């Protein structure tokens, strides 16, 4: 399905995280008003966790019925459940422990002290997703896009300086995987080496994919992704929401954007979504 890129450039990381938090709250309210329950896929990383922190303190947060939001993760670091480096631990601290969420709707990837291997964690997570998909009751027109996955309303992604998204790293097996929803990763170039990730195929079933990126060190990755690089070399280039793909970035991360995106009409105007 065609899903055009929207690029929003914010002056700095604080403005970016506040604006993304506001957008996410608005989106969840909108989905809940149409359907009752909303589903968000969280990311780890610096901006991803800062966005969650901004959501937890935003005055508008009380407009969301947090007990009817389902939470999944796009990737996880294969560590013990209480590790401060787990994406789920950081999300709990930044958001989930601060809001009245329903613990039954929070679905972290199995941790290293809960299963015996990263492969088992990936299989178990894929089963959790498939089980949710099988039991999901959605009104006509709101069905999941893939029978193996629940419907993802918004899927958040960070982008590494090497252009990785979730735990799909350039040139590695995970980014090339097809036919699976979840992959184990065993030699990630960014620690920890063992991780679990949604595949690109699974990411791209989401209705909306939002890539949040800040900092000069990510400018090359953002520039290449938006210039249309190949997804094996630049995984961020492959992430596409079915109805919308939003790039939410700060000025520093925008410094190597192709000119046509900075000034699409040739008028000197800033890019907008
Ligand atoms: O390790 C990870 O890194 C990416 C990007 O993180 P950042 O700190 O460079 O923003 C993140 O999206 C992913 O969820 C995480 O596991």
TrEMBL record:
Q: Which InterPro entries match?
A: 6-phosphogluconolactonase_DevB, 6PGL, Glc/Gal-6P_isomerase, NagB/RpiA_transferase-like
Task: Give the GO molecular function terms.
Answer: 6-phosphogluconolactonase activity
EC number(s) recorded for this UniProt protein:
3.1.1.31
SUPFAM superfamilies, sorted = NagB/RpiA/CoA transferase-like
Q: Which Gene3D superfamilies has this protein been placed in?
A: 3.40.50.1360
Reactions catalysed, semicolon-separated, are: 6-phospho-D-glucono-1,5-lactone + H2O = 6-phospho-D-gluconate + H(+)
Q: In which pathway does it act?
A: Carbohydrate degradation; pentose phosphate pathway; D-ribulose 5-phosphate from D-glucose 6-phosphate (oxidative stage): step 2/3
Coiled-coil stretches: none
Keyword match Iron: no
Please name the CDD domains in this protein's record.
6PGL
> Which family is annotated?
Belongs to the glucosamine/galactosamine-6-phosphate isomerase family. 6-phosphogluconolactonase subfamily.
Q: What is this protein called?
A: 6-phosphogluconolactonase
């Amino acid at each position: 399905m065609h899903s055009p890129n929207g690029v929003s450039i914010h002056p700095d990381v604080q403005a970016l995280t506040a604006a993304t938090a506001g957008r996410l709250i608005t989106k969840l309210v909108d989905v809940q008003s149409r359907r009752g329950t909303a589903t968000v896929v969280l990311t780890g990383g610096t901006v991803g966790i800062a966005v969650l922190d901004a959501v937890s303190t935003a005055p508008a947060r009380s407009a969301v019925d947090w007990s009817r939001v389902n939470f999944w993760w796009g990737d996880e670091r294969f560590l013990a459940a209480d590790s401060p480096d787990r994406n789920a631990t950081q999300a709990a601290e930044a958001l989930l422990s601060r809001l009245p969420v329903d613990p039954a709707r929070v679905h972290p990837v199995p941790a290293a002290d809960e299963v015996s291997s990263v492969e088992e964690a990936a299989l178990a997570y894929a089963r959790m997703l498939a089980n949710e998909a099988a039991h999901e009751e959605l009104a006509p027109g709101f069905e999941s896009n893939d029978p193996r996955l629940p419907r993802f309303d918004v899927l958040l992604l960070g982008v590494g300086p090497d252009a990785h998204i979730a735990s799909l790293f350039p040139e590695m097996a995970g980014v090339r995987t097809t036919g699976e929803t979840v992959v184990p990763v065993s030699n990630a170039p960014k620690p920890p080496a063992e991780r679990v990730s949604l595949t690109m195929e699974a990411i791209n079933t989401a209705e909306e994919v939002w890539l949040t990126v800040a900092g000069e060190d990510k400018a090359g990755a953002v520039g290449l992704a938006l210039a249309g690089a190949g997804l094996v070399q630049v995984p961020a280039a492959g992430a596409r929401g079915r109805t919308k793909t939003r790039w939410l970035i700060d000025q520093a991360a925008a410094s190597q954007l192709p000119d046509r995106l900075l000034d699409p009409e040739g008028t000197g105007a800033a890019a907008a979504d």
